[in-house]
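Q: I'm building a small set of examples for a reading group on sequence design. Run inverse folding on the following structure and report the sequence directly after it, with nothing in between.
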């Protein structure tokens, strides 16, 4: 287990002085401010600027905590907007090492996987950060039972590499495959899977390490209260170290696209998607500037006799998306982007007949959402589930939203980066591939 430690510069830490178990999960205490940052010459983060403004206005008061002294170890999420200074970082490779890390730490603990949760949840200031990304091994795979058990730090994409040779696929996951399995369970993620709901519905069992250091096995029938608290619990009741999942057959799917007025979307989903037994994946893309005309994209299961237009079984790892990022920039930032979407993107969306493996559509890489440069912008991934019951009226708003930098941009550069970004990229690639294969 790798261990990076920076001891606080002062002693008398209230959290460290107790003899009880470490505190897991959210820090719900009063706002504290590290005043040492205010005299620093380092570039200020937007959150720091906001806090300083509130202090100047008297909207908040300063409470300096010795236990939260700057340590020099920073943990960031994918947006890089919320760096958190921690006292210690450990990278366990086994449940035993997770248990040992908790036993040796008297203060607060936060857990991180792919670090795609945004807003500072992946770390706690002055505390212990447990980096789960090396806890990523396969425990066992039973294809005949359609079940798999993995360590919690494994990413969906790595699990797909193990499942695909057996003709199997993940049952429920996000639209992208970069997230860790344990992190996805901790937030009880959802995706585009029609009628299946969040990932918790596909979990057979979990292994947890509690704050007291106990290693426990929980599931829908075994300690169900603790199981329910762990799924979507953000680590509040313990660290998830192993996950046992249902898996399903990998099937061929065909894309069907239907533009629907926004006022009719909920009824369209209930009547033509939710009740269709062949519907596997569904999303409704909302395009700027008005977001009033959903483009419904449904992937339907088809037979093995239907020819594939995409022969790859999985999206290859480590691809370059420079071309797509340039196309995104042209469409979203330059004048005429809306006209390009209307006259080029939508016609492309309606024309190709795309047939591929479920695993290919489920193995998308968030790298395709990266802006051309992080100096000007970053992204977030807002997704609303198209699922059961009342949620059936929801749409999945896929793609990045602009987080503007704290300085003005030039004229003509205020077009928002909306959900149309990813639609444009994927369609250009698919159309190009189809055209190339037709030669």
């Amino acid at each position: 287990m790798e261990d990076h430690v920076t001891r606080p510069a002062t002693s008398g830490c209230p959290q460290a002085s107790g003899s009880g178990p470490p505190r897991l999960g959210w820090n719900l205490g009063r706002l504290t401010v590290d005043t040492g940052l205010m005299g620093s010459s380092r570039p200020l983060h937007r959150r720091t600027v906001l806090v300083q403004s509130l202090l100047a206005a008297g909207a908040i008061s300063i409470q300096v905590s010795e236990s939260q002294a700057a340590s020099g170890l920073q943990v960031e999420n994918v947006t890089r907007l919320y760096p958190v200074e921690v006292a210690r970082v450990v990278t366990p490779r086994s449940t035993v090492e997770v248990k040992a890390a908790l036993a040796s730490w008297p203060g607060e603990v936060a857990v991180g996987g792919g670090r795609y949760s945004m807003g500072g949840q992946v770390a706690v200031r002055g505390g212990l950060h447990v980096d789960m990304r090396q806890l990523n091994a396969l425990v066992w795979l039973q294809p005949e039972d359609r079940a798999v058990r993995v360590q919690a730090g494994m990413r969906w994409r790595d699990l797909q590499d193990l499942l695909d040779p057996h003709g199997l696929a993940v049952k429920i996951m996000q639209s992208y495959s970069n997230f860790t399995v344990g992190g996805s369970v901790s937030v009880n993620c959802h995706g585009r899977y029609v009628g299946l709901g969040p990932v918790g519905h596909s979990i057979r069992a979990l292994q947890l390490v509690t704050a007291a250091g106990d290693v426990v096995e929980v599931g829908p029938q075994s300690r169900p209260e603790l199981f329910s608290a762990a799924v979507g619990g953000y680590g509040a009741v313990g660290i998830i170290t192993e996950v046992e999942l249902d898996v399903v057959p990998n099937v061929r799917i065909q894309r069907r696209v239907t533009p629907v007025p926004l006022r009719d979307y909920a009824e369209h989903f209930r009547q033509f998607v939710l009740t269709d037994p062949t519907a596997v994946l569904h999303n409704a893309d909302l395009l700027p500037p008005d977001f009033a005309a959903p483009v419904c994209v449904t992937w339907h299961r088809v037979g093995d006799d239907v020819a594939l237009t995409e022969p790859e079984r999985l999206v290859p790892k480590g691809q370059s998306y420079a071309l797509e990022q340039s196309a995104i920039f042209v469409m979203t930032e330059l004048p005429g982007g809306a006209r390009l979407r209307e006259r080029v993107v939508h016609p492309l969306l309606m024309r190709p007949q795309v047939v591929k493996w479920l695993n290919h559509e489920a193995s998308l890489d968030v790298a395709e959402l990266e802006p051309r440069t992080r100096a000007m912008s970053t992204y977030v991934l807002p997704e609303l589930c198209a699922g059961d019951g009342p949620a059936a009226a929801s749409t999945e708003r896929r793609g990045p939203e602009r987080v503007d930098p704290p300085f003005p941009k030039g004229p003509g550069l205020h077009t928002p980066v909306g959900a149309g970004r990813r639609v444009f990229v994927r369609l250009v690639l698919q159309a190009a591939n189809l055209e190339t294969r037709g030669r």
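The chain has three domains: 2-133, 138-249, 252-437.
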